[in-house]
Each structure stands twice: as structure tokens, then as C-alpha cells.
């Protein structure tokens, strides 16, 4: 069970890191193409980052629940 908890937390962190990198990278590309859209792109980027970061938070909650209820 401890291995499953560790995998749950580790994979969520890796996935969030990759997702954050993709979101920020695409935002920078968009700003480079259209500098006048910087404000709108940054707003959308922060919303996207919040959604991506929800995965590790949920994973930590599930991991703690699994850890607390293990036999």
C-alpha cells in the first residue's frame, strides 16, 4: 500500500511539472507572436496553471486518506 501511495504522489508531481511547462511555454510563444495580447494570455495561463496544479493537491489528499485508512 505504501508503494501505491508513493506512486500516486510522485506521478501527480511529474504530471503537474510537465503540464506547467507546456502551459507556460505555449503562453510565451503566444506572447512572442502577439505582444498586444499579453494580458489576455497571462490571465488564461494562470487559470490553466491553477487547473493543472489541482491534480497534485487532489493526489495528496487521496494519498493521505489511503495512508490513514491502511490496515
From TrEMBL:
GO terms for molecular function: lipid binding; proton-transporting ATP synthase activity, rotational mechanism. It is a multi-pass membrane protein. Keywords: ATP synthesis, Cell membrane, CF(0), Hydrogen ion transport, Ion transport, Lipid-binding, Membrane, Transmembrane, Transmembrane helix, Transport. CDD domains: ATP-synt_Fo_c_ATPE. GO terms for cellular component: plasma membrane; proton-transporting ATP synthase complex; proton-transporting two-sector ATPase complex, proton-transporting domain. The chain crosses the membrane at residues 45-68. The keyword Transport applies. The keyword Phosphoprotein does not apply. InterPro entries: ATP_synth_csu_bac/chlpt, ATP_synth_F0_csu, ATP_synth_F0_csu_DDCD_BS, ATP_synth_F0_csu_sf, ATPase_proteolipid_c-like_dom, F/V-ATP_Csub_sf. The record marks 53 as: Reversibly protonated during proton transport. HAMAP family: ATP_synth_c_bact. NCBIfam families: ATP_synt_c, PRK06876.1. F(1)F(0) ATP synthase produces ATP from ADP in the presence of a proton or sodium gradient. F-type ATPases consist of two structural domains, F(1) containing the extramembraneous catalytic core and F(0) containing the membrane proton channel, linked together by a central stalk and a peripheral stalk. During catalysis, ATP synthesis in the catalytic domain of F(1) is coupled via a rotary mechanism of the central stalk subunits to proton translocation. This is ATP synthase subunit c. It comes from Tumebacillus avium.
